[in-house]
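User: Design a sequence. Structure:
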């Protein structure tokens, strides 16, 4: 196709195009971060009612990533198309709802910009390649899981498990590493945090992390092989410690909320996948 040929011949246009795509995907990620936890809770509630042999809930209003239409959480105003353009709508509306003038959180444009910049970085690093397309999916998934865990303290299986399998499938063709390296990366990634979890619980009687963290590290191992695990664990632990110290300094010893660890694993994994040991600098034509 002429578009692909244009991208191959002009790296700047390709990076810009992927960056703009990232803005659009960032807008969708905002929807996923808001709705997916509610969808999961709805599903868990329904499963619980079935187990307890209770009648099903009568509310049949569809609630998924597509329906109902996006609306203002303050007044329920249904957003028009021009109110959902990534970044531009937020700037045009001056960060306020067009109906009730309630403020629109800075989080939405920040996620869109972050996704756009990260996507452009991947495009610049990998070019027009299978590895680049795969890393875009990985990056978008890491960003989504980080935001959900930061807000809801969960790492959704519906995202992390398919991405784990995708990493193994890609590496069965040697896209990033060999299949044995990816396999043992997944195994060691899961078992390392699983072991830490049970040692911590045995010593303290408390749970120090969730099972989603095990799966996330296993996913990163499936993508980058066992070689990326030491750097990911080291960097994520350092980031978590720094943030923990800052929170205690600002909030004092009265702060009792658990700190989500998945965002630190995701940030560290992203860094190590791109730059750790030069493992994933592979470009595939």
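Assistant: Done.
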């Amino acid at each position: 196709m002429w578009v692909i040929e244009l991208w191959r011949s002009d790296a700047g246009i390709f990076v810009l195009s992927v960056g703009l795509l990232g803005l659009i995907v960032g807008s969708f990620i905002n929807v996923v971060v808001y709705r997916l936890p509610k969808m999961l809770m709805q599903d868990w509630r329904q499963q619980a009612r079935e187990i307890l042999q209770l009648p099903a809930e009568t509310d049949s209003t569809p609630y998924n990533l597509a329906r109902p239409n996006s609306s203002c959480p303050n007044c329920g105003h249904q957003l028009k198309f021009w109110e959902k353009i990534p970044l531009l709508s937020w700037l045009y509306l001056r960060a306020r709802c067009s109906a009730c003038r309630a403020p629109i959180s800075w989080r939405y444009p920040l996620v869109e910009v972050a996704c756009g910049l990260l996507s452009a970085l991947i495009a610049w690093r990998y070019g027009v390649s299978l590895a680049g397309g795969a890393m875009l999916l990985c990056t978008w998934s890491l960003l989504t899981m980080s935001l959900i865990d930061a807000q809801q303290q969960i790492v959704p299986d519906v995202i992390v498990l398919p991405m784990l399998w995708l990493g193994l499938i890609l590496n069965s063709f040697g896209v990033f590493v060999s299949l044995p390296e990816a396999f043992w990366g997944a195994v060691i990634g899961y078992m390392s945090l699983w072991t830490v979890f049970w040692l911590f619980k045995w010593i303290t009687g408390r749970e120090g992390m969730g099972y989603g963290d095990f799966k996330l590290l296993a996913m990163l191992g499936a993508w980058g092989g066992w070689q990326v695990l030491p750097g990911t664990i080291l960097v994520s632990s350092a980031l978590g410690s720094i943030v923990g110290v800052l929170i205690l300094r600002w909030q004092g010893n009265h702060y009792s909320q658990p700190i989500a660890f998945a965002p630190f694993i995701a940030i560290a994994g992203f860094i190590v996948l791109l730059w750790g040991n030069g493992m994933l600098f592979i470009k595939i034509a």
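The CA atoms of residues 165 and 222 lie 8 Å apart. Residues 278-285 have pLDDT under 50 and may be disordered.
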